[in-house]
Write a structure and sequence with these properties.
With 227 residues, the protein is of the alpha+beta class. The protein has helices spanning 3-32, 36-47, 113-119, 191-195, 200-203, and strands at residues 52-54, 68-74, 77-84, 94-101, 136-140, 143-151, 156-166, 178-188. The chain folds into 2 domains: 1-32; 39-203, no CATH class.
Length: 227
Amino acid sequence: MKRSTVVERARVRRIAHWQLWWLLAPMLLLGCEPHSELNTRFWNALDRVSFVSLPLTEAWVRHADVSLVLERRYRSIAEQRLLLPNTTSIRGENFILMIAQEARAPGVGRFSPGLLLARNDGPPEPFVDFDGQPTSSRQDTLGWLHWSQWTNGTDLTCVLAFRQLDATDRILPGKSSALDMMLRNCLYGTAEEALEPLIDIHTGYAAIAEHPNGNQRMLSPLAGPRP
């Protein structure tokens, strides 16, 4: 058989394979993605659950400025909101919003700021025009931290920050497979200071992670603090 004939048949097979892929891709994606209506019903059911105020020792992260711990659960998902002090003129609370999801929860494993923003009823002040794409990123011992920054041009700084942890980073609440986090923090200072509640030295710990002598205890050997 001539080489040109073999090459031509191979080309035809490749084209046929791509045509088949484009025909099947929408069906494959539809089978992999959570059904939007089911997904919506799931989150709506969580919304109907009232938040419960818990002791500070029940917080999923450890930070001295946390003043209130609110939590609610529905099936394979739990949502926790930690309040932080806000001494600025910016409206709204400083907070850490966290979503702990088990493997069977809708959307688990696919981190998206959009989910956290939706759970917060939209971007908080002063990030009302936030498009879901953080402008800055950095890496620490727990992985990537992403954020956007706002400033009044002097010493007032706000950050809207995001990160996701999984079971390789630290022990997660309950049977969770992923822990998504969002921070809104406004203060008089730098962005580094505003990001501080979401850095690894705090998000690598739960509030109860403490030795009897008062020293912090890591929840995972992979979540070590920076030197």
